Amino acid sequence: MTDNTPQDQAPRDPNFNPEAAADGVRLQKVLASAGVASRRVSEDLITSGRVRVNGKVVTELGRRVHPESDQVAVDNVAVQLDTTRRYLMLNKPVGVVSSMQDESGRPDLREFTDQFDERLFNVGRLDAQTSGLLILTNDGDLAHVLAHPSFGVSKTYIAKVEGRVSPQTIGQLQSGIELDDGPIHADKARILTSPPGGGYSMVELTLHSGRNRIVRRMLDAVGHPVVDLVRRQFGPLNLGTLQQGAVRELTREELGQLLTVSRQAPSARPEAN
Question: Does 127 qualify as catalytic in the annotation?
């Protein structure tokens, strides 16, 4: 984790009230409990100006914080202080609906969450025939930011489609097309494979829209129906080598990146189609 701002020039918190914070928990203890580092190393992080509380650099070892309300970052990467929160990455298989209880009795997400004590829910949705990265959590605030298109969190998909995709088609996807529910464009699009003899092509699309089955509808609109679709990235998270049907905890680094995106998101921003 790096910080390009010189620490001796970073803003201190002029509104810090030692008496109001006296009933909190010592910052170095909170950092150690959150798994950032040992208490001794956490003290070094604080005194070297690498820790911020509510956006302001803290260098005093006596500083106390309230884990339930204060926001802490180390090297400008957010730290989750609430140890009751859980964050999982699932590689959702084809045939599983993005619901915790499907009324029609189809396979749902409970088979991946029943092993955990917390009441988890999915962030956003993937249709039953789409596989790939799905976040499961009990953090409602984070889920709201990640799932709502107004915050502009990007998702990247790889699609196997019918026919040979041309550079002109990629340009069309990026410049924008008209669908029944309004215009839409990909933030990024590129051809991965496109055999000259036709058959099937592989394309990668990145967009932030949360509209229903949007990738399938976009590719169908340009004459390339989807045969197979996988979501590979969600914000800063990458599916990597996680196998279909597998679930794992986010690493501390991944969680820090995700929380940083969440905290930096504006409170409101219209969706750009």
Answer: yes
